[in-house]
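Slides due. Your pick:
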Amino acid sequence: MSTGSDKPAGAAELQAARVVLERMGVSPQDLLGPSAQRAPLPTFADYIPKVSAAVSQGTRRVYDSYWKRIEQQWGDRRLDEPTPLEIKQLAEHVREHVVSRRNARGGRSAAEHLIAALRCLYRHAVADELISEAENPAKRVPKPRRLPSTRRGLPATGLEEVQRIAATTGNDPALDTLLLRLHTETACRRGGALTLRPHDLDADQCLVLLHEKGDTVRWQPVSPTLMWHLLAHAEERGASVDGGQLLRYRSRAPITSRRYDHLWKRIGSHLPWVATQQISTHWLRHTTLTWVERHFGYAVARAFAGHTSTSGDTGTTTTYVRANLDEIATALAALTNEPHPLAPSTPRREQQHG
């Protein structure tokens, strides 16, 4: 006895079947027979080094410690074994046992980065066709909600106090004042400063080439005074000879992010408000960009910051109101009270910051 129609399925039925299979993460080849069994998936210990070698240096630097934690916890497990609940449990464990730092906010950032590190692993696993998109457990675990930032622009008096302490204390005031001026003029992140090389300096047009997060690269104007100090620093500390990292100690060893940590700890020991409010280098970025936005508008401030995202209505609008390098140079000239080769004119600065 027949249990159904012998009429072949039409186009609509076939399309409906494809949609159902796609939602289930099943391909038509999976239905051909029991012999088409998928090979066992690699373990985290096997797969993490492969992904680490495939990502950029910046991504590796951010996720490396979290991949190590994942490998410690789940190294012998296959990629398809952890559930979304287990991922959430691991994120909470990392959050509760995070190392307490001066700018810690309850471990929320650590939990967020752990989930992001797992999502990176599973994106590669999907691309390698080890799992389907529907089988990605990290995609179903939400990241912790980010709290509003407590950072803001420093007032002119506060910035002057910070610069004074950096210039009169410590074992290398020349280096510390150079760091502060570089970040104040360019609003660059620490990573952008630490990757500077002598060949990133355009002395004729007073530009520095910044390599920052997301593999972004941009030319940023600096004042003639800062350019002179950067060139002198490179010459005196050996960077101009070997072409390596520009910013160095007197010993000619390249500085690391620890120099910033020690700098702000020292400044905080002299200025209690710096320690209390947990002021860091990123506050200088807020300070400069706030001043630029107030005096030259959003488009120039956005370009000054090196923001390139085009998501959302605001991002779409900036396609038509994007500021150019000359406008950034004009804002810098007003900020520093120094002429710049790319600035058509130098507006008089009314107030430095605030």
Q: What stands out?
A: The two ends are 86 Å apart (CA to CA). The chain has a mean pLDDT of 86.
